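INFO batch 0412 | record 1 of 1 | parsing
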Amino acid sequence: MATTSPARYAGRAYSNYASFGQIFTDFGGREDAGTAFVSSRLDYCNSLLYGISDGLLAQLQTVQNAAARVVTGTRKFDHITPVLHQLHCLPVRQRITFKLAMITFKCLRGLAPSYLADVCIPVSSVDGRWQLLSADSGTLVVPRTMTTIGRRDIAVSGPTTWNSLPVELRTSSLSSQTFAKKSQKSFIRLLAPLKTFV
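INFO prediction complete | emitting tokens
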């Protein structure tokens, strides 16, 4: 059985949405349809896409951009970054990172399966490292790896993503919902100066 690339899979979802989305005349209806047809496909198991090539990411970003244009009625050559901000929508690369951050959060709170939680090891719990400055900042141990595939492993990508979050997110005892909101806002703030999603 032939495999379908993530970009082609999301592209087909966009095609369905582009034809079906025209039925809705109001913004809310188009946004709901966009979520159902496109965003759900972009988000499905997207943590597995961590570390994929820039070319594949660009294809997925093109699908997201096109859907955002349909939702808002933006013209083809208008800049897309303000549109994504208007929709409170993270670009694809940041969506993947956000999903990894959420998975790691759940691992640390006992809300994930043990096979995932076991790879999230706080620096403070490791003998000989608990006195390090990083032990107080909620960082996780990142295993060493020499390969690209190794860097994509959840045991490496999860802690790496977690350690890149602001200290206040790593060290606070937030609920899943609050953590999701605050971390998404954190990603949006980091993206504010960037203009790379055309």
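INFO post-check: Residues 6-89 form one domain.
INFO record closed
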